[in-house]
Design a protein that fits this description.
Its EC number is 3.6.1.13, 3.6.1.16, 3.6.1.53. With 330 residues, the chain is α/β, with parallel strands linked by helices. It has helices at residues 40-54, 72-75, 79-91, 103-108, 111-115, 169-179, 210-225, 252-260, and strands at residues 11-16, 27-28, 35-36, 61-64, 96-99, 132-133, 141-146, 149-153, 229-234, 265-270, 277-281, 286-290, 303-309, 313-320, 325-328. It has one domain (11-328): Purple Acid Phosphatase, chain A, domain 2 (4-Layer Sandwich). It is built from eight helices and 15 strands. Bound molecules: adenosine-5'-diphosphate (ADP).
């Protein structure tokens, strides 16, 4: 019997992905197959924020899974204004927000600008029970909002062509990597290969550096020892069955082998693929959720969710395009 109606959750948290706000008329995605509701996305966030503010219990925090504003803001000189508008909406509720960075953050700002901005929520690691940061320019951190439950925010563009100087060592390292897989003149155009997974090597994706993977390994080793449950969040998905291959992180396989080796990991939550996706990794029992994007959600629907955490499971209650999912712990 489902007893979640009778049991109070230990705590709850909100999730929302790919708001991609811009003060402009609706448009279409690159392949002209999906409508993008640039202005309406802020209105859908307002409805999500109101729902979270009025819910009991109120979520302890919200995870914003990246692409908070659209790249079109850059050409219009509207990047800072657009971020301010979205953050103002979030700030009308007292719930703290953990911001993940996606490709559209880097279309609007450089990495160093982002590190100095309000979109850098790694300061919240310090106020958590035992938060840690990956360090350097890597935007990855962990926080423990409740004893026994750790959350890890990953930086899926730690190795990428986006947000870094084209003269930098980082840029050339990423260029070398992508060019081993993508011969197209326009690196935003995914490579055509008999192996569908190769499509991930496009400029709008990125990867995790060795330093970040080593840091993640140490966080998970410590969580294993403390018998904690770990939820990892990232803009890019890492399980091929949870998304279309064109949206995967460049080294999704390395990330997967790390999390598969640690009993503490229960769930991986991503955005980027606006159609969403879900799979249960049967070998490990880890749930991989890719959340439907707000930007491609019609104004009369929505795309956000609230996750209730119990000692043996988490329950995602989705609104609009996001389905309900029971996340039983492995
Ligand atoms: N198949 C493609 N070929 C060439 N450029 C592409 C392709 N798909 C996307 N792009 C470009 O890559 C960038 C990111 O694509 P976009 O659809 O905005 O990403 P997202 O899904 O994160 O919103 C845009 O500049 C877009 O024009």
């Amino acid at each position: 019997m489902d007893d979640s109606c009778q049991r109070a959750p230990l705590f709850t948290f909100g999730v929302i992905a790919d708001i991609q706000y811009a003060d402009m008329d609706d448009g279409l995605n690159f392949s002209q197959t999906r409508r993008r509701y640039y202005r309406s996305s802020l209105e859908l966030l307002r409805k999500a924020r109101e729902s979270w503010s009025h819910s009991a219990p109120r979520p302890k925090f919200i995870i914003q899974l990246g692409d908070i504003i659209d790249g079109f803001n850059k050409d219009r000189g509207a990047s800072s204004r657009a971020v301010e508008k979205v953050l103002e909406e979030f700030s009308l509720s007292p719930i703290e927000v953990h911001h993940v960075w996606g490709n559209h953050e880097f279309y609007n700002f450089t990495r160093s600008e982002l590190l100095r901005s309000k979109l850098n929520s790694s300061v919240l690691a310090d106020t958590s029970l035992s938060g840690t940061r990956a360090g350097g320019d890597i935007y990855a951190y962990s926080f423990t909002p409740f004893p026994g439950f750790t959350f890890v925010v990953l930086d899926a563009y730690d190795v990428s062509l986006l947000g870094v100087d084209e003269d930098s060592v980082q840029y050339h390292g990423a260029l070398n990597w992508i060019k081993q897989h993508n011969n197209n003149e326009d690196l935003n155009s995914p490579p055509v290969s008999f192996d569908d997974l190769e499509q991930r090597f496009s400029k709008f994706n990125g990867g995790f550096s060795k330093a970040q993977l080593d840091w993640l390994e140490s966080v998970l080793t410590s969580a294993d020892k403390k018998r904690e449950k770990v939820t990892i969040v990232s803009h890019l998905p890492v399980h091929p069955f949870s998304t279309t291959p064109v949206c995967l992180a460049w080294n999704f396989d390395e990330l997967l082998s790390i999390i598969q080796a640690h009993n503490c990991v229960v769930c991986f939550i991503a955005g980027h693929d606006h159609d969403g996706g879900y799979c249960l990794d049967k070998r490990t029992g880890i749930h991989h959720l890719t959340l439907e994007g707000v930007i491609e959600t019609p104004p009369d629907s929505n795309a956000f969710g609230t996750v209730s955490v119990y000692d043996d499971k988490m329950v995602l209650k989705g609104v609009g395009r996001i389905p309900d999912i029971d996340i039983f712990f492995p």
